[in-house]
Design brief:
With about 140 residues, the protein is an alpha+beta fold. Helix content is about 30%, strand content about 20%. The longest helix is centred in the N-terminal third of the chain and has 10 residues. It is built from four helices and seven strands, in the order ααβββββαββα. The chain has a single domain, classed as 3-Layer(aba) Sandwich (Trna Endonuclease, Chain: A, domain 1), CATH 3.40.1350. The strands form two sheets. It has a four-stranded mixed beta sheet.
Amino acid sequence: MASGKKRKNKAGSQEFRNTALSDALQTQDMAAVAFALRHGPTVVPLLRHGSRDDPRDAGEVWTYRDPNTGDVALLLFSDATHKPETLPPAVALQSPEWLLAFLATHIDQITTVFFDIAGPHAMQATPADLIEALGA
């Protein structure tokens, strides 16, 4: 976690951010984004929280399905404060290993991945590009 002032999630319990990812998105440097993803957590929107009694239950990830094309997008955030209020309120802080496994499992369904879609420095990548970046 980043040092300095801590930001709290809506529940007020812990910091939900990856400063290196935020910095990499600001420069739009894919190599820096890949490094940040390999070495830090990612904020993921959830439809439902995981069970506190089952550490294997990470919750249900929220994805966006375009009503016109059926394309599915995964939205990821460098900081929970960048998540639009219109998305479900729950978030999870997921590890690089979790992200790699999730993308590999759903590569046939997810067509694109957006980072900080509402800004301040949005970026887009394909699941295949991210899997390659996470494996490097």
